[in-house]
Amino acid sequence: MSIQITKNGNQTLLMASKGETRHVTFSAFQPAYLEQNNLIIKKMSGRGAVYFYNWPSQNAVNTAPKLALRHYRRGGLVAKVSEDLFIYHGIQQTRCYQELAILAYLQEQGVSVPTPIAGLITQVGLFYKADIITQVIINAQELHETLQVKTLTPETWQQIGLEIQRMHKAGVCHDDINVKNILLQEEDAAIKVYIIDFDKCKIKPDGTWKEANLARFKRSLVKQSHLYKEQTFSEKSWQHLLAGYHA
Predict the structure, then answer these.
(1) Residue 218's closest CA among 242, 191, 192, 198?
(2) Which domain holds residue 238?
(3) In whole angstroms, what is the distance from residue 58 CA to residue 56 CA?
(4) pTM exceeds cut of 0.90
(5) Which of these, 82, 161, 71, 69, lies nearest to 122 by C-alpha position?
(6) Which tens digit of pLDDT belongs to each residue from 70-104?
(7) Looking at the structure, do residues 112 and 152 belong to the same domain, yes or no?
(8) How many angstroms separate the CA atoms of 241 and 238, rounded?
(9) pLDDT category of residue 63 using cuts at 50, 70 and 90
(10) Pick the catalytic residue: 84, 131, 175, 176?
(11) Helix or strand or coil: residue 174?
(12) Any idea which of 97-106, 152-161, 190-199, 229-238 has the lowest mean pLDDT?
C-alpha cells in the first residue's frame, strides 16, 4: 500500500487508507476540533492520551468509522528534556510514517493488526512532532483485562501463538510485545486475536530475536500474573501458546 503525502506549511499529512476514511483531513488530528464537534467517544490516559472518536462518513456520524488518535511521546530520561520532539531526517524516517508502513505490510501478510489510516508530521525547526490514526478494533479487549475475568481456552492460547508466529514469519519484531498489546475480539462466540502498537518495530532477517521476542512476552504474562492474583495464566497456558506458534 502506498502512502499519499499532502503538505500544508510545516505540516505533512500521510494517508494510508483509501476506503471510506479517505476524506480524513488535518482536523482529524485536533482534539479540540473533535471535542467541539462531539465526535469523541472515549479518551484513554497514560504516557500520552489516546482519543477514540467517530469520523463522519459522507457527513453521517452514525455510519462513521471509529478511529483512534495517538500522539507520539518520548519515554525514559530523554522525555525530561523533550516530551514529544524528534530529530527530523525526512518523511520516511518519521515514527508515524514507519508505523503506518509496517501496519500496511503486516495486513498484506495476513497478520491481524489495526488498519492504518493516516499520520501527521509537524515540523519544528530541525525537529518534528507526530501523530497517528488507526481504525478501532470493535468489541475487543486487552489480553491483560480478559485474563482478570476469565480463563482462556487452550484454543484461544493457540490462536495467540499462531498470530505471533504470523508476525514473526513476516519478519517483524515487536519491540514492546506484552499483555496490553494483544487484543481479543469476540463476535458470535468466536475469538480473533489482534496485535497492536507497532511504534519503533522493525522488519528483521531470521535470527534469535524471535525466541527473545517470545521470552519477552512470557515475562510480561508472568509479571502480570504476579501483580494481579486473579490473572488466569499458568505454564500450561504457555505450552498451549507455543503449540499454536509452532503449528
Answers:
(1) 242
(2) 140-245
(3) 6
(4) yes
(5) 71
(6) 999 987 655 556 789 999 999 999 999 999 999 99
(7) no
(8) 5
(9) low
(10) 176
(11) coil
(12) 229-238
